[in-house]
Amino acid sequence: MTRPIRKLPAEEAWREAFAAFHAAPEWLRAAREEAFARFEKTGLPTPRTENWRWSEIHRHLNAPYPPLAQPETVDEAVLKQLMEGHLLTAADASVLVFVNGRVSLEHSRLMEEDGVEIVPLADVPLPPEWADLSPANDAIDLLNLAYATDGALVRVRAGVEASIPLLVLNISTGDGHSVALRHFVRVEEGASFTFYEAQLGGGDHVANVSTRAIVHENAALTRVQVNQKKDEGTIHFGRLGAEVHAHSRLHDTALLTGGRYHRQNTYVDFAGEHAEIVTNSAYLLRSRQHADTRLRVNHAKAHCTSREIFKCVMDDHARGAFQGLIHVAPGASGTDGRMGAHGLLLGEAAEFDSKPELEIFHDDVACAHGSTVGALDEEQLFYLRARGVTARRARAMLVAAYVGEVFDDIADERVRQALTDYAERWLAGEGAA
Amino acid sequence: MLLEVKDLRAVVRPEEDEGEAKEIIKGLSLSLDRGEVHAIMGPNGSGKSTLSHVLAGKPGYEVTDGEVLFDGENLLELEPEERAAKGLFLAMQYPVEIPGVPYMQFLKVALNSQRKLRGEDELSTPDFMRLVREKAQALGISMDMLKRPVNVGFSGGEKKRMEVLQMAVLEPKLCVLDEIDSGLDIDALKVVAEGVNALRGPRRGFLVITHYQRLLDYIEPDHVHIMANGRIIRSGGPELAHELEREGYAAFVEDAA
Amino acid sequence: MADQDTIRQVEELKKYKYGFETEIETEKAPKGLNEDIIRFISAKKGEPEWMLEWRLEAYRQWLKMEEPRWAKVRYEPIDYQDLYYYAAPKQQKKPKSLDEVDPRLLETYEKLGIPLKEQMVLAGVEGAPKVAVDAVFDSVSVATTFREELEKAGVIFCPISEAIQKYPDLVRKYLGSVVPPGDNFFAALNSAVFTDGSFVYVPKGVRCPMELSTYFRINEKKTGQFERTLIIVDEGGYVSYLEGCTAPARSEHQLHAAVVELIAEKDAEIKYSTVQNWYPGDEEGRGGVYNFVTKRADCRGDNSKVSWTQVETGSAITWKYPSCLLRGDNSVGEFYSIAISNNAQQVDSGTKMVHLGKNTKSRIISKGISAGKSQNTYRGLVSIHRKAHGARNFTQCDSLLIGGECGAHTVPYIQAKTPHAKVEHEATTSKIAEDQLFYLRARGIPEEEAVALIVNGFVREVIQKLPMEFMAETQRLIGISLEGSVG
Lengths: 433, 257, 487
Hints:
Chain A is globular, with a radius of gyration of 21 Å. Chain A has helices spanning 9-21, 26-42, 57-60, 76-84, 139-147, 378-386, 391-407, 413-430; strands spanning 94-99, 102-103, 116-120, 152-156, 166-172, 178-187, 192-201, 206-215, 220-227, 235-244, 249-256, 261-270, 276-285, 290-299, 305-314, 319-328, 335-345, 351-360, 365-374. By secondary structure, chain A is α/β, with parallel strands linked by helices. By secondary structure, chain C is an alpha/beta fold. Helices cover 25% and strands 35% of the residues of chain C. Chain C is built from 13 helices and 23 strands. Chain C has helices at 2-12, 35-44, 49-63, 103-112, 118-122, 147-153, 160-166, 168-174, 185-193, 434-442, 447-458, 460-463, 468-481, and strands spanning 26-28, 87-89, 131-137, 140-144, 156-159, 198-202, 211-217, 228-233, 238-246, 253-256, 259-264, 269-276, 288-299, 305-312, 317-320, 323-326, 332-341, 346-355, 361-371, 375-384, 391-402, 407-416, 421-431.
């Protein structure tokens, strides 16, 4: 049954381009070379790569998409529209803008706060963790490290409860190339921080955006991500690699609705006891959009709690896939993990696949997962219509209700409302940013 | 005439293309005017709930013959929401739970959707809140309940009381009450009946569907119809319900056969 | 009370009760696997040419295949050339009745405690339940009972080797039609070398008048057992079939690679129950059966129904996914499973429910219990195809952990290609409830028995799906399997 799988054009293009990239500054070189060497060994995922089984990456990466060596400029009017038209404008935050793989300070607006350092990668001394590929990685993550041209470096000093969140806009445009950004957020002991990330722009290109987060003891990090890429051109690879220490909390929420393809890799490692993570995501997909999530929560330490909710709504020919894993290491007593993966199929040709997996090597645990697939409830629909709500509105309301719990815990009322409202508008076709 | 049902025949549409369509309503006629309260009584399986579903336009049924006029207009051509906007309200035997949709939002969208369909201005949020607060108070419904998702975790009595609240807020012309007494103890029944009675008036009609005469002690009808096997087999005044209570359905059904 | 029985039996049986060996003269083919061995097996069985060709074709496919590696089981590579593929008790001719069977064999079955209740019937005991039994010893069917009575009803129940001779049309039509020879590595191996197994045909409109049962036993050293079961229930028919398995305790591993194919035509129903108690190996993982089994049912006709019930307590490794292809409209597939692993056992088992027809329904209830250093994985697939409008699945998958060194894993795959279907999957994993354990112990029940009681409660829903004859045996087995898991 083994048959060779042809190399994708993108894979070849990335190999060719690497020579240009490893001439980068010294600080980057070693990390890049190592990452690339590892990529060469594994190559891109194939349809037989278990963690990419429903990704159809071969279908999507059908062009070379070479890395963009020189930043491409974007029309000011277009930029302005992108910067003002997304869902996270509701957040009162410092703004750091990246355009086609490079920071744009002129479009950014950073507010100073004691104990909070926010700098673009540029040529500052690089924290070793920036190049760290833990907790887990795959070919796409390796490519990110090999090709990342910029990123935000955030450090919140011990004990600082930051009051000004950071909003990072990852804007990429144009056709036929790929861009890679790599952000790093460190929240030191007893500190807290809120980090918003918006994937914006459009065009037939690859955007590979990775965020590495370390949440130290007694600290808290909130992250909200939206993907509002325009049209159906962009292939987006998103990654969150988080390390959560004792008594700390990570709260991650995503609303992903843009682009042609979104692959999200979320890896969370518990690095201390009594920590807690929540990672919730809502996907609203239509036409031929394809979204795919890989989630791995590693309960390596005792007495940690994890909650994962994944809700995917698919209209038309859209495809959604979820592969989640709760891993409980030997000795991780008192683990409490719960994962839910749910698909709502609206379109006749829509498709949903899910694999919520439990891998448990210890007995003192309470773990559960649930997964459902179905259509809108006809009884609910009729009930609403019998009260005078139009069929279209009723469907929109039920869709919003379906994904609503994903946003429930977002602390910023205005951000939560913006995402909730969007979910209700989405079905009516008012979705595009 | 507010509601005219003429020789109505309806079948349950089978799922997909499986099996035979089953005829449930087999030539039913009924006229109901403003200000009137009609009761339809019938044994299980007589088709009374189906009648209410067909009137409200629930998917899954197909009208094969006859017509239904609502205020002189062909009701059967309308979508369920259009029927609601025209003033038809079906209080359901099993009000549906809708997790994630707060009751207040549901009620507001329903009221404003109806107003919009009727070409009226939407109610502002403060006006709406005032209206709901007033109606809820009259029914002894706490505002806390309206913050909860629609019908989720409500008791049988609470669900029915909320159906009455919807009637009070939406002010329909015709209320079809499908076994509104089912699952209620006597105290809950009284509360619901009082709510219904408060809505009675010269401009509004009621079609009360029930299995038991008991409900009619609290909501007194002007006309009583007995339904069996998809048809109305006898009509009369309120005394008919008492006669039925004494003699049981069997006697009537046999007579009709 | 059954629970009282369990406790008593737990005390009585301290070791693998079935770990004895029977000394019977056997005839073996030389070790190893090649086309000549397959020709030898085929010739021994007096098979027609088409059957030999079928086997050889399967063998050639097998040569090109790789052993699957995706299951969460680990084992030393199997040397397929170091096994015997044919071992048969020496007999002059086939026995016509139990009387003609070697008494030592019968003794073996008695020791096994097989529900050979028909012996009571033969002895004239009134009211004894009727169960027709086919017993497969190493590779060969040695006794099939109640054949005459079944024949009266039109039901065929015989060794598959006999069916190949007597009912070639039926066998040719159905063999490999559900599990094709090239389906997977172990199915290909089985197709090439299977030596016996059971064949059942229930004709149109017939409800099989009694439970059918096959008892499998591996006896010989270094002998692979490759049985093949084929059950066909024609329109409107019904059969309930049970299988049980044991093997002697041996310090080396034994290979078992079976294939079971079920075919349910229109309005037909098959209930297939398994109590698998192959030798699990010792505490250190020495010895034990490698159990690689392909079981699949084809719900070919409209309104057909197949129900798999399995109790997996034995084997060093269990690799087994009894599945249903729900092709007929309104067809129903069910999977009820108890999988218990202790010591060094590894289980990777579950089911596939493939919804192809309209309004097809499936239900999966899986109860996994891990103890000792064992690893226990549920692996399942629910697939709803584009045209399966009205399809419905419900899955409940619960795992219980006893002790801090074992593993319990749940790997469900859910694929839906139509909005006109509903799939619900729930899974939980938890340790055995300490408050329950304490409560029972405070009432004077020793810990090990308390565990057995709690586990019996945990798996109750599945036990109730078993035929009466197996219920008590299963409860007893649970107690035995979990010995040494606490304290």
